Structures are given as C-alpha cells and as structure tokens.
C-alpha cells in the first residue's frame, strides 16, 4: 500500500552534538549551513540587519563525517540546493527551503572539496570535485552524474586545491590546481568538452614550493595574481608564469594556516588552525632605502619584480576568536564577498568543534587610516570585532518551554537513572535506538550496556499531549542487562526488510516490512564489549550470547531473503526438494546411498550436491514468490508467528506494575496512533469552535508543548525540522495535509467513529445491541444524533485543512504559509492507498482553484517543457492511416495475453478485406522508420520508451521534484520522472479547467495535443520493465483520460481508448471480492476499478461518442464472427467477449442517467446489448425484461417471446427487427420522423409503431414463405393519424406516449395525461 510517514521529533533537553566539520554561507547571506562529524547538517536562518542566526532544520542522512559543502544553485533559482559529501563516499543534494534530499549516490571516491561554477554556454552549474584521487571530477549538480574528468599527463597526484575562472576575452574556462606534492597544473575546458565525457589532460604544469597546499585562490579583481596557502606559509604568484611575488610565514602562536583569500588587489586574509584570521597588506611600492622593490599589485612599475627582505606583506588586521580556549579540532572557515549598493560586504565565517559559529565583517581600510597604521613602529594590527557569535547549545537554551525527550519521565530505579531520575544523565546517554514497528515499542541502548524497552506511542503521548492520565504517570518499560560496555547497534530481525543494515542510531526499522522467517519476540544487540546477544522480548531473558574476538560490533544485518535458513532447509522433504527443482528423486536416492559408507568419494559427492542446492536456493525463492503473487502464504505465516509470539509469558516490568495488557491489541494501537497523529497535526487555535468539538467529540488531545516535525525523503533519510507547522516547508505541509484529510475522511466514513475511548466503546456496543433489536427508539435517536454531530465534526476538520487553512493561517498572523507541493500531490493522484489517493485529489483540486488562473498558468509554463514528444505510432494511433475503413484488428498492448484489444485476433491467414495489424508489425514499422530517419525519430522513441522509470510513483519520494532538474544536465531517470509529474499535473489542470479557453487547452493547442498524446501513450503502451502494467502513473493516466475526456477527445483514437479500458475491466468477476468487501486492492483490481470509473466518466461526458464507438466495434466483431471458423479465431478470448459485464454496466448507467442520448441511438444501444446478453435465454422463452430490464423502460423497444423477435425504433424513423432464431436484423423505413414507441401483439403477428413527430400510428405484419422457408418480409398493413402531442410532452422523454396491446387485434395509445386512443389492426 502507499506509504505516508509522519515523523515526530522529541529532541530532549540536551541539544544534539554538532562538531562542525565544514561551513557554508549562501550567496544571498540568508542561510548558513553547518555540517558535523556526526553526519548531520544544520540549516540556520540568518538575518543580517538584526544579526541573528536561528537553527531551522536538521538534515540527518549521512552515516559518516561530512567533508565538504557547496551551493549548487544560483540565488535566482526557484529551488535553493546544496551538495554535501561524506568521508564514506556518500554524495547528496539537498533542498534548503524544504529540507528534502533530492538525490543521493555512493561511490568509491572520497571528496574533500567541491567548487561550484557556471560554465559559459550552460544554464546549470557544474561541480568540480577533488579528493583522495588524482583527478578533478566534474559532476552534474542535479543528478550527481559524473560528466568528465581532468587528469594529469605528468606526475599525477592528489589535487590539494583548485580554482576555476574565465579569463577576459576568452570563451572557455581555466582550471588551476595544485597537487599535494606542490605541482601547479592548468586545464582549459569548455562546456562542449565536458559534454563529450572524455578525459581532459592538463595543458601546463610547474613545480612550486607549495607542498600540502590548503588553498589556491585567483584574485577576482585582476585575474593575474594567485594565492596559495600551505600549513607553514602563504605565497602570492603571478598567474602568467607562476613566478613568486610574495611570501609570508606563520606568526608567533599560530600552529598552521588552513586557508585564505583576496580581500582586494592589494590585501589578503588568511586563517589558521588556532581559530584566528589575519589581514595582510601586499607590497605595492618600493620601500625606502632599498634599491629594488617588489609589488603584488598589477599595474605598478614594481609588479613582477623579485621580493626583497624589506618588501614583505604587512599584518594590518586580526580577527580574534571569542575565547582563548584551545580547540581540539581545527575549525572550518569560509570567506564570502557579497555585492551591495555601497560596494561589497566582506564576511568571514568560522565554525568550531564545539558547535560555535562566529562571523566577522572585514572592513576596508581608508588611505589615511592605513597610512597612520603603517607609520607606527612596530605596526600594531587593528582588531576586527565579532559581528555574530552563537552556537547550537546557546540557541537550545533559549527555547521556552524546553524540548521534551522520549525518556524524560521514565521511572527512576536502581541501575536505570543516575540519582535524579533523568534517563540521559551523565554516563547514561542513549547511543543506539530502534523502533519495533510490529510491537509498537522502542528500544534504547545506553552507555552502561543496558537496553530500555518502552511503548513508543504511549510514551510520546504522555510527553506531548494532555492525556487523561496523571502528569506524573510513567510508561511501563523493561530493562535488558547483559552488555558490560555501551550498546553500539540494535537489530529487530522480524521487522527487517532482509539484508538491510541496522543503524546504530535513528529510526531504523520504522518502515520495514515484517519478515515471517524470524520470530517476532527476538531482539539482537551488539556492544563495545565485543558481544552479540539475542533477547526474548516477552520474558526479557537472554537466549544466546556470543563474543566476537575482533573488536566492537558496529553493525548488524539479516541474511538476504534469497538465502535459506538452516531450519527451512532441514524441514524440506525429498518431494519438496524435487518440487523446488533443487534435486531429483534419482539424485536424492544416490546421495542417500552414498551417505551410509563414510568414504571420501561420498563426502565429495555430498559436498557437490549441497553446492547445487545452495546455488538453486535463490531460484526456488523467486519461483515461490511468483506463484504466490498476493503473498497469501507470507501473510498466513506472519499471523501465525505473531500469534505464537503473543502467546508466550509476559515480561516483568521494572516498575513492578501488573503487565497484563502488555500484548497490545492491534486495533487499539492503531487508533492510538491515529489519535496521536491527528492531535499533533491539527491546527489548534485557528477555529475555537472546532477545537472544542475535537476535544469533546472527536477525541483529539491538545499538545502540551509545540511539537517538532520531520520529513522522510530519499533513501529513508530523516529530515528533522525545528518547531513550527504550516510555515516550516511546503514538503512538510503537503505530508501533514494529506495525513489529516486522509485520517479524518477514514474516520468519518467508518460509521462516524471517534478517537474518544468512552464514545468509541459506546458506539461499538450500540451497533452490537442494535443488531439484536434491543435498543429503544429514544436511545437509537440519541445515538444517531450523536453520530451526526461526530460526522459533522470530521467534515469540518476536513474542510479546514483542505479549503480554509490558508486564509485561517493568515488571519492568525503567521509569518508565511507554505502551500502544499503540487508535484507531490500529482504523484499521489493514484496512490495505492485509497484514503491517501482521495486526500491528494481533494487537496490538488483545491490548491489549483486557490492559486487562480494566473497561478495555473505559471504551473503550465513551468511543467509544459517536461511533456514528452510522441509520434503517432508511439501514442497508439494507427500505423497505417490510409486504411481505417476496413475492419481492423489491432493487437492490444495492455492485455496480458496475445489477444487483440478490439475483439479480434491476429492471424496471418486473415481475409483479404481485413487489415490485421499486430504489435510486431508496429515494432517493425517503427524500426524501419527509425533506420530511415535516425536523427529525428530516435530521440522521440527514447522518450516514449523511458517516459517513466519510477515504479513507486505514489510513494513518499519527495526527491527529484524540482523543475530545474529537467534541464540539459539532468540524467535520464530524473528527466523522465519529471515527465510523469508533468503529465499528471497538466492533465489535472486540463480535466478540471480546460473547458475555459484562456487556460491554454483550446482546440488544437500544443498543450492539449501533447498532454492527450502522453495520456494515450501511458494507456496503450505495452508493459515493460520500465513501465509495468499496473502502476500508479498508468492508473493516473487512465483516470484522467476519463475525467478530462471532452478536452482530449479530438486527439484520441476513441475506439482504441475504450477497448483498452474494457480490457482492464475484462476480469471484473474475478476481482469482485477484492473490490466489493473493502479489502486492500491488488494492483489488478485497482486498475480494474480505475478503468471502470474512467469509462463511467466518458459515458457521462460523451455518451453518444461512447455508444457509437462501441457499436462500431460490435459490428466488426460480428463480421469476424461469421468467418471465425475459416479464420481459425477464438473469439472467446477477445476483449469484447470478456468485458460483456462491464459493457452492460455502462449501458445501464447510460439508461438511468442519459436517456436523451439513448433515445437518439436506440438501435446502436440494442446492438451492444444483444452482443452482451445471453441470447440463449431469450430464445428459450425468457423475456427481455428478465434478461436486461433496464432497456425495457423505453417505449421504443419491444420483445416478442413467441416469435423470438425484438423491435427497436430509431431516431431517424426506421425500425430494426432482430430475429434471435437466425441472428439476423431487418431494418424497415417506418416513419419520416423519430419513432416514439413500438409494440408487438401478444401472438407476435403484428407490430405497431408510433411517431410523435408525424402524429401517425402504423401496423406491420411479417410474412414468410411456405413452411417458414425463404426470406421474411415486413409490410405496413394499416396507418392511422393521431392527435398532436403538446410541446411540453415532446421535451420530456419520461412523458412520451406508449403502446399497449389489450388483445391480439387491438392496441391502445396511452398519453401522459391519461388519455387513451384505441386502434384495431
């Protein structure tokens, strides 16, 4: 089912550790990003006028220390992204505004520095990366795809630092790099060179005295001088020939330099590992008393002269740290020059290992001030004051009320808490956590080696919500003691997905799928004492303990699902081994004989046998899964395992309370989770009346403290956000709104259920007693009134969060409301979870209405370029448009078998008058066209084949949803994922707003044409590994074709679309239990229901088009049916035969809701009905009113059971007489206007017809040859004129006159006013 994760963050009273390893201040000076050795990234909001930094988002995704950060988008881009690289090879792209992880890759390259640069001719940035490898790697910032490498011709070595610049009057870029050995290298590259993907060699190289360089920077003011900083000195070189212009060593008290940059063309700033920054003035004139001078300033006479002793750089400023404490780890720095109206703002930022952030504003020295400073002997450098100084710990202390922690109220017992009862006291910190999803508990491993187990939902509710329990109540918990040192990792095998590593900390296992092969009551822990322990969660006893003599246990994981466990293999009998194709009976008997004598030959053959068994274990597992498509065996095993696990003894809690309720009932736990989620997500304070209803009727609980929320993005990285709600980010708002609306709708439709325990028990009791008829009328009325109030409360809650929320938030004075992401809602348009699907559809429609026509036009302009370009043959149009008139038989691309989609079968020996086009011929013709027009057709075919690569289109994949990702530098997977979002989003706009001409979907517009072709392609394209048959994206196309059919109709092959939808509905009778009883729908049943709804939309929007198309296909079917034997066709496998039930449902829907359309196409409707019903019943004497009673409500239809004939009057004045005995139809011209009514006489000898247009009634008689031989002829025997019918009757089909035979010779014309006119035949 579609997943929707809503993380809640309980930070605790102590802030998370944040040992800053790299720092980044964005170019707009509004966001500061700090990365730590723990793999966390903290995003700070920076307000320069107020000089305030506030931590906003904590990004948790890396599993090792982060080595570098870089900004990967321009400040004008709608999406602000950064990239981060870790020391284990992880490479991530983050959206700073929403906190989403857009992309993540893991490689063998360890990056140490990333330089972002926009090359000439490219709309996107490029990432120039260096690290523990001898090349410079150039990556695409959106997809993290390696585009090109810059390598060395001579002396390859690790690159220490690089700088990218574009010299004036040149159309390419120059990359300067210095290696660890001191070699400076120069590359010349262009965007075209990067696009080729070939390795580029350096053009120049030179050896310098700059080993282990920390920084290389080219002066941005003149591009002629280069600064290289080494641990012991910094040097200035001429960029032309790399001759040294100046050099300066470390000062007293400074251990080593770590970087630097140019402040101007005559000043530099360098910083060291002690946390200080130094501002130096470069020599720019001849010193007094010296014969030779030196200058580092371009344009002076002394430029490029050799440096003399008395022309060294002069220290003119110092950036001192806030404290004199010695830092254990060197701090990280960044220098940024921001253009302002008065010139440039020069900022120096530092982050240290204690989590502190310091910012200096470095000012420019005026000439008089500089002259006065240099005149002093010795020169006394000026001190730059600290502009901003803060830390995560300082900001944490300002939070009021302080954040709560999961273990704040755990009962203090001996060995659990140190003294005061604080579970995270000194020496008792939590070092490993794991959520046991199937048990609803959380396991916390601590530094003293103990493991604490407590119910997660109950503990969270006690900390966050005002529950009915006492504020001093503590959750029941259990302590497992066995490790002598800290617990390093935890694993719950039953909830592990198979082979996934167990993280040392974090919500591992929160979203894992239960694995029946492992017991549900076992937990595995690893510690720093080299021990691994298996625990019984029911009793708290140690089942197994073993010591690994190799060091601390860092990671635990289960075996892959393809591997057989020892118990599983031992339980297999010879028959099961042979059935699984692991061995044969003869081989088994041979091995059985060889096992008796213990000979070397027997041991060898036994080993070979078990080797074969091991090799085929994976194939056996795969085949078992294929046979059990719905995982019925796995579910049964899971239930049995859960029942077995819950039937054991209970564990003794450490607080000595009765633990009879430890085995949590699943429904109660589910409602408790729902109560928690709705209580923390509800918008408290926006509607006081609704708040009172939520507390008194709906069972919601008011939060004690403002909750902190999170977001789960790519690869299940958790993005934990700081406090806030609708102003956090659009991604968080989207998830919360979908969750609230989905849960509220579910509870509203569940007989108005409530989360209040007492009311819910009363509701269930009343429903049980009502079945026994033991409830009085007063009690039942009171109950119904209460249920109505509850239902109204859920409806109001849904309306607030789906429609009224933006205005309510603005009225409440919130800073900024973050609207939901349209692209995420588009992904969930056909979510596998019905509740999430309905919520997403409501929210997307509401948001499109809220943004108005201007906002919708912006969405169209943003996403229209992502629509794929498809040719006619690619989106399902006929391959040969010149021959559409002949009865065609197009092979179905959607069917699972080889039968065609329009009711015919492909056969090489088909009749000459039939054009048979199968999928192979289409492929061959496409291949031939591609070979002839290689340059034009191939890119379009690629778009068609790879229109989507994301099979889980509806999941919580919040990554890859930015419009900037679809540019020229994006990878194929990212681009085609964008295409899927664009198709759904634009199709929704077209379906609900396309009828307005100003929306851009006018007749013939490129927007309507491309969108309709894309939808048709998704419906008609054959299943493939990239686009399977039953996927959310394909279901979304099926659904939107029906919703917006009036807009797409001019560009669709209606017959193909209708038959494709009928093919999906052909197996309705097999999938009925899944759809009828509200069970979780399998993909086949979901696609069947969606296709059925789409056909209903088409029938409601264009009933005439649907009827005409289906009647034409029925005529083709009947034509082939006459030649089925000669053509050797099996028509029972065709779509029109298998989908008869669905076709009859459509006809019944049209008869009930669109009678006017049926009146005009009554003959075509009768053709369709007679194709679908069992004519054997009609020939056997049953009446049409018994076989299909809906059509008998029309006076234009009459059935004679005696003569086995059906007469149908048409709108053009003809009458179609169907002879069911020989399956023939005779059409006679009866009237000059529409036929109003027809009726057979009781003996079937006469047929009466009446036309309200010409006011005439006619009698018809059918004659045949002797003994019924020869062709029958129907002739008019009498005609009578009738009184005119009032115009008001002509406009209402329900009041049309009717014909009723009262005898074999007399018929009565009954008018709507009760008047009767009798006529004799």
UniProtKB/TrEMBL annotation:
InterPro entries, per the entry: WD40/YVTN_repeat-like_dom_sf, WD40_repeat_CS, WD40_repeat_dom_sf, WD40_rpt, WDR72-like
Sorted UniProt keywords: Repeat, WD repeat
Biased composition (Basic and acidic residues): 652-661
SUPFAM superfamilies: WD40 repeat-like
Region (Disordered): 640-661, 870-942, 957-976
PROSITE patterns listed in its UniProt record: WD_REPEATS_1 (PS00678), WD_REPEATS_2 (PS50082)
Name listed for the protein in its UniProt record: WD repeat-containing protein 7
């Amino acid at each position: 089912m579609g997943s929707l994760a809503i993380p809640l963050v309980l930070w605790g009273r102590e802030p998370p550790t944040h040992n800053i390893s790299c720092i980044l201040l964005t170019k707009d000076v509004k966001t500061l990003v700090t990365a730590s050795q723990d793999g966390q990234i903290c995003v700070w909001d920076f307000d320069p006028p107020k000089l305030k930094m506030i931590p906003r988002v904590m990004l948790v995704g890396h599993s090792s220390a982060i080595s570098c950060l870089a900004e990967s988008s321009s400040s004008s881009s709608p999406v602000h992204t950064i990239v981060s690289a870790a020391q284990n090879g992880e490479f991530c792209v983050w959206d700073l505004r929403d906190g989403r992880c857009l992309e993540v890759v893991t490689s063998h390259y360890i990056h140490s520095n990333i330089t972002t640069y926009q090359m000439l001719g490219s709309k996107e940035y490029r990432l120039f990366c260096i690290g523990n490898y001898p090349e410079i790697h150039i990556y695409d910032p959106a997809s993290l795809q390696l585009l090109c490498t810059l390598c060395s011709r001579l002396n390859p070595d690790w690159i220490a630092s690089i700088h990218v610049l574009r010299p004036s009057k040149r159309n390419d870029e120059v990359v300067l790099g210095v290696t660890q050995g001191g070699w400076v290298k120069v590359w010349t590259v262009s965007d075209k060179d990067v696009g080729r993907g070939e390795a580029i060699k350096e053009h120049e190289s030179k050896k310098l005295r700059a080993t282990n360089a920390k920084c290389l920077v080219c002066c941005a003011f003149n591009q002629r001088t280069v600064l290289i900083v080494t641990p012991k000195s910094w040097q200035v070189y001429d960029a032309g020939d790399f001759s040294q212009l100046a050099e300066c060593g470390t000062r007293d008290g400074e251990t080593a330099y770590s970087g630097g940059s140019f402040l101007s063309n005559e000043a530099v700033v360098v910083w060291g590992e002690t946390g200080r920054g130094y501002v130096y003035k470069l020599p720019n004139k001849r010193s007094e008393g010296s014969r030779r001078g030196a200058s580092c300033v371009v344009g002076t006479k002394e430029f490029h002269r050799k440096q003399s002793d008395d022309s060294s750089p002069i220290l003119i400023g110092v950036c001192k740290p806030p404290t004199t404490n010695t830092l254990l780890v060197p701090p990280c720095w960044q220098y940024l020059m921001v253009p302002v109206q008065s010139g440039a703002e020069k900022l120096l930022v530092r982050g240290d290992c204690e989590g502190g952030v310091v910012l200096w504003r470095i000012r420019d020295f005026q000439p008089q001030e500089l002259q006065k400073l240099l005149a002093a002997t010795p020169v006394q450098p000026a001190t730059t004051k600290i502009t901003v100084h803060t830390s995560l710990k300082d900001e944490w202390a300002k939070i009021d009320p302080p954040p709560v922690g999961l273990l704040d109220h755990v009962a203090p017992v001996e060995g659990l808490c140190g003294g005061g009862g604080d579970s995270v006291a000194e020496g008792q910190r939590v070092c490993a956590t794991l959520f046991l999803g199937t048990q609803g508990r959380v396991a916390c491993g601590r530094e003293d080696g103990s493991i604490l187990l407590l119910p997660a939902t109950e503990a969270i509710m006690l900390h966050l919500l005002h529950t009915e329990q006492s504020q001093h109540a503590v959750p029941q918990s259990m302590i497992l003691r066995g490790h002598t040192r800290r617990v390093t990792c935890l694993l719950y095998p039953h909830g592990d997905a198979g082979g996934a590593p167990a993280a040392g900390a974090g919500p591992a296992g929160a979203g894992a799928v239960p694995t029946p092969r492992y017991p549900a009551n076992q937990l595995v822990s690893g510690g720093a004492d080299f021990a691994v322990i298996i625990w019984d969660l029911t009793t708290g006893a140690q089942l197994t303990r073993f010591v690994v003599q190799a060091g601390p246990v860092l990671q635990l994981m289960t075996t892959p699902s393809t591997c057989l466990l020892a118990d599983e293999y031992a339980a297999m009998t010879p028959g099961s081994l042979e059935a699984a194709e692991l061995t044969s009976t003869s081989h088994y008997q041979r091995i059985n004989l060889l096992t008796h004598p213990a000979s070397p030959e027997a041991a060898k053959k036994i080993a070979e046998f078990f080797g074969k068994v091991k090799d085929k274990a994976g194939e056996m597992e795969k085949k078992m899964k294929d046979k059990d498509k719905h995982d019925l065996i796995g579910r049964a095993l899971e239930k049995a395992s859960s029942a077995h696990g819950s039937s054991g003894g209970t564990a003794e809690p450490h607080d000595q309370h009765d633990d009879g309720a430890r085995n949590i009932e699943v429904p109660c736990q589910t409602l408790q989770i729902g109560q928690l989620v709705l209580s923390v997500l509800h918008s408290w304070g926006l509607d006081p009346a609704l708040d009172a209803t939520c507390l008194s009727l709906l069972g919601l609980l008011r939060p004690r403290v403002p909750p902190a929320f999170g977001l789960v993005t790519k690869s299940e990285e958790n993005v934990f956000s700081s406090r806030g709600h609708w102003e956090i980010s659009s991604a968080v708002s989207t998830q919360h709104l979908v969750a609230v609306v989905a849960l509220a709708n579910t509870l509203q439709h569940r007989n108005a259920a409530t989360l209040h325990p007492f009311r819910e028990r009363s509701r269930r009791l009343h429903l049980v007693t009502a079945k026994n008829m033991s409830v009085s009328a007063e009690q039942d009325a009171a109950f119904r009134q209460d249920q109505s109030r509850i239902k109204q409360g859920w409806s109001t809650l849904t309306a607030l969060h789906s429609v009224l929320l933006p205005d309510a938030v603005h009225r409440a004075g919130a800073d900024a409301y973050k609207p939901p992401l349209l692209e995420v809602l588009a992904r969930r348009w056909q979510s596998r979870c019905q509740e999430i699907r309905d919520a997403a559809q409501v929210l997307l429609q509401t948001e499109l209405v809220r943004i108005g026509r201007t906002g919708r036009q912006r969405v169209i302009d943003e996403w229209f370029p992502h629509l794929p370009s498809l040719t006619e043959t690619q989106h399902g149009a006929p391959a040969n448009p010149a021959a559409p008139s002949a009865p065609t038989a197009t092979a179905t691309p959607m069917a699972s078998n080889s039968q065609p989609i329009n009711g015919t079968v492909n056969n090489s020996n088909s009749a000459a008058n039939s054009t048979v086009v199968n999928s192979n011929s289409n492929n061959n013709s496409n291949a031939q066209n591609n070979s002839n027009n290689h340059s034009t057709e191939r890119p379009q075919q690629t778009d068609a084949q790879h229109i989507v690569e994301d099979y889980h289109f509806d999941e919580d994949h919040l990554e890859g949803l930015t419009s900037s990702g679809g540019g020229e530098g994006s990878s194929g997977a990212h681009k085609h994922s964008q295409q899927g979002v664009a198709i759904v989003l634009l199709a929704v706009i077209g379906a609900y707003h396309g009828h307005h001409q100003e929306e851009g979907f006018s007749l013939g517009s490129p927007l309507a044409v491309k969108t309709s072709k894309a939808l048709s392609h998704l419906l008609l394209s054959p299943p493939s590994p990239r686009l399977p048959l039953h996927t959310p994206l394909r279901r979304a196309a099926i659904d939107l074709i029906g919703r917006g059919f009036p807009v797409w109709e001019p560009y669709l092959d209606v017959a193909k679309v209708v038959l494709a939808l009928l093919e999906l509905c052909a197996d309705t009778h097999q999938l009925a239990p899944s759809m009828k009883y509200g069970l979780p729908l399998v993909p086949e049943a979901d696609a069947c229901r969606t296709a059925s709804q789409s056909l209903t939309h088409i029938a409601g929007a264009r009933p005439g088009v649907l009827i005409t198309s289906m009647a034409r296909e029925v005529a083709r079917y009947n034509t082939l049916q006459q030649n089925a034997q000669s053509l050797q066709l099996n028509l029972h496998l065709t779509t029109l035969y298998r989908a008869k039930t669905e076709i009859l449902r459509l006809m019944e829907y049209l008869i009930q809701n669109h009678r006017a359309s049926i009146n005009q196409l009554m003959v075509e409707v009768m053709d369709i009905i007679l194709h679908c019903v069992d004519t054997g019943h009609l020939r056997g004497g049953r009446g049409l009113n018994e076989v299909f009673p809906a059509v008998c409500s029309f006076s234009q239809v009459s059935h004679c059971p005696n003569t086995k004939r059906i007469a149908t009057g048409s709108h053009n004045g003809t009458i179609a007489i169907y002879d069911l005995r020989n399956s023939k139809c005779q059409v006679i011209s009866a009237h000059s206007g529409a036929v109003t009514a027809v009726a057979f006489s009781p003996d079937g000898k006469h047929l009466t017809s009446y036309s309200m247009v010409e006011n005439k009634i006619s009698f018809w008689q059918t004659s045949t040859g002797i003994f019924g031989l020869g062709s029958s002829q129907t002739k008019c025997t009498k005609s009578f004129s009738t009184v005119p019918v009032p115009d008001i009757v002509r406009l209402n089909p329900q009041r049309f006159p009717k014909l009723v035979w009262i005898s074999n010779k007399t018929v009565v014309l009954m008018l709507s006013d009760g008047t009767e006119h009798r006529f004799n035949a």
